[in-house]
Amino acid sequence: MERAAWTDERLDDLAESIRTGFARTDQDIRDLRTELHSEFSELRTEMRPEFSDLRAEMRSEFATVRGETATLRGEFDALRLTLFRVGGAGFLGIIAAILARGV
What we know:
Largest sheet: 2 strands, antiparallel
Number of helices: 2
Oligomer: single chain
Strand order of the largest sheet: 1-2
Shape: elongated
Strand content: under 5%
Number of strands: 2
């Protein structure tokens, strides 16, 4: 049969059970944070030389483009100039076509 009312002892037991559960959860979270901090510190230590090697390799690759010694900035400047020339030629072609039709 179900009890209709909670006794003080049962409420005290419930409160203690909840306190114990939260204390256990808090400790688990603290342990997890400590473990994650340790793991991430180790990962940073392992990855630092790898990233340095990657940076050096990328600098080397960007410095040597198409077998010639050039900088990436120089390549972008050349691309920008080419796009400007193509766009300008297209614009002039449209103007010439309009003028040829006899405006």
